[in-house]
């Protein structure tokens, strides 16, 4: 089968203006809960898009760890490529692909670093192996072999076998404060439903977009 022949119909139901919450964060959390209840694989997975200093976009998948009226939170190595990009350009795009529900959400916003207290609270809640991995991996740096990474992990595992693991200074989180959020619901005959929430003078305006 040729790639251009691969297609399917979207038929899980439309999205109407009357069905939307007035607040996009409430609408997002409602959809996220439905994705969790539908037992989607990795419902909190999101693509994070950043831009380097030459204007080249990059994308990678990370996990959403918190969402409230202040924004969308994820954690990373602060020396990683994404962190370096954010340092130069804090504008970020997030994308949630919930294929089985024929839905997607796109978020545009500005990234800001979390406080040391917020980083500590989340880091200490992680499994010990995840804490060790955060220290062992100098994210985005070049390594000659996987064995180097595994050796560092085992070394740290022995070192902290009995004690608490300190929060590394090069690890932390970002909060993406949204400026717009778009909700997309697949529709029959490619007549998809799209609604865009945009910030305007302290309120959210809602517009329907053509598919």
TrEMBL record:
It catalyses: pyridoxine 5'-phosphate + O2 = pyridoxal 5'-phosphate + H2O2; pyridoxamine 5'-phosphate + O2 + H2O = pyridoxal 5'-phosphate + H2O2 + NH4(+). Keywords: Flavoprotein, FMN, Oxidoreductase, Pyridoxine biosynthesis. One of its GO terms (molecular function) is FMN binding. Binds 1 FMN per subunit. Substrate binds at residues 7-10, 65, 122, 126, 130, 190-192. The keyword Oxidoreductase applies. Pfam families: PNP_phzG_C (PF10590), PNPOx_N (PF01243). Its EC number is 1.4.3.5. FMN binds at residues 60-65, 75-76, 81-82, 104, 139-140, 184, 194. Pathway: Cofactor metabolism; pyridoxal 5'-phosphate salvage; pyridoxal 5'-phosphate from pyridoxamine 5'-phosphate: step 1/1; Cofactor metabolism; pyridoxal 5'-phosphate salvage; pyridoxal 5'-phosphate from pyridoxine 5'-phosphate: step 1/1. Residues 171-211 form the Pyridoxine 5'-phosphate oxidase dimerisation C-terminal domain. Residues 32-158 form the Pyridoxamine 5'-phosphate oxidase N-terminal domain. Catalyzes the oxidation of either pyridoxine 5'-phosphate (PNP) or pyridoxamine 5'-phosphate (PMP) into pyridoxal 5'-phosphate (PLP). Belongs to the pyridoxamine 5'-phosphate oxidase family. Homodimer. This is Pyridoxine/pyridoxamine 5'-phosphate oxidase. It comes from Vibrio scophthalmi. The gene is pdxH.
């Amino acid at each position: 089968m040729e790639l251009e022949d691969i297609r399917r119909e979207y038929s899980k139901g439309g999205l109407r203006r009357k069905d939307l919450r007035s607040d996009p964060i409430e609408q997002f959390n409602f959809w996220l809960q439905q994705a969790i209840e539908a037992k989607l694989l990795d419902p909190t997975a999101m693509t994070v898009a950043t831009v380097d200093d030459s204007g080249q976009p990059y994308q990678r998948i990370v996990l959403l760890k918190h969402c409230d009226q202040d924004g969308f939170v994820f954690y990373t190595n602060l020396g990683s490529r994404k962190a370096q990009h954010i340092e130069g350009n804090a504008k970020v795009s997030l994308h949630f692909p919930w294929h089985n529900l024929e839905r997607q959400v796109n978020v545009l916003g500005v990234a800001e670093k979390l406080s040391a207290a917020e980083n500590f609270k989340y880091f200490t809640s992680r499994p010990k192996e995840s804490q060790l991995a955060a220290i062992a991996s100098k994210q985005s740096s070049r390594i000659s072999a996987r064995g180097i990474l595994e050796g560092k992990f085992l070394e740290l595992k022995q070192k902290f076998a009995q004690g608490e693991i300190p929060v590394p200074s090069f690890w932390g989180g970002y909060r993406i404060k949204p400026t717009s959020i778009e909700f997309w619901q697949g529709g029959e005959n490619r007549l998809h439903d799209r609604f865009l929430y945009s910030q305007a003078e302290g309120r959210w305006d809602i517009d329907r977009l053509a598919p």
